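User: I'm putting together notes for a lab meeting next week and I want to include a structural view of one of the chains we've been expressing. I don't have a solved structure, so I'd like a prediction I can at least talk through. The sequence is below, exactly as it appears in our construct file.
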Amino acid sequence: MSSTPDRGVPVPALALAALFVTALVTAQLTAAKVLLFQSPLSLPLAGSTLALPGAALAYALTFFASDCYSELYGKRAAQAMVNVGFVMNFVVLALVWSTILAPAANPEFAGQFRAVLGASTNIVVGSLLAYVVSQNWDVVVFHGLREYTDGDHLWLRNVGSTASSQLLDTVIFVGVAFFLAPVVLGVGEALPLSVVASLVVGQYLLKLLIALVDTPFVYAVVRAVRDGETDTRATPSG
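Assistant: Thanks for the context. Below is the predicted structure for the 238-residue chain, given as structure tokens.
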């Protein structure tokens, strides 16, 4: 009777996938709060006040996790993680709405609970469409740049893939949630195009800044995991 060795899932892969899903779920739950930041400069369209959803930081972490995962475990593994994450969005929505619709022991709190966690239809449609397009684009561009540079310049593929995918994410989310969905589907309130443009500029600039800041951390994670794998292979098994 033969037996299969139980190698288990590598801890770094499990940790990065867990970070990706945790940040993704957190982004879903924090999207309702709108954040305002004052810029020291007056920006075209956006002015000096930058408005973005509270999910911005959590969602930026998903790109950090997927870039690390792409570099370490390859394109197919990263695409699988991204698309499993897309399905998990629906699981989160189902669990949240089943709780919202269930009878409440404290009805006075139920309205507040729904207001905070029950994202409107236009936000859900915009966020899901933006997610599936931008995250898959991130993986494709990351590996396209990796092949183009023969595996060199990790900083280029991290910044290039994240910057372009965050632009797609911002344009799709803001455009669909605040303009197209209200106009085409009749859900939510359509904002003037000038306001939509200012939201895109403000959100993207902050996301681009996060993409630049996270590059040293991508290097650190990739190096730590590869060094750990080298040490493991070099250690004789008992």
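A couple of points you could mention at the meeting. The beta strands are 34-43, 47-53. The CA atoms of residues 21 and 84 lie 9 Å apart.

User: Perfect, that's what I needed.
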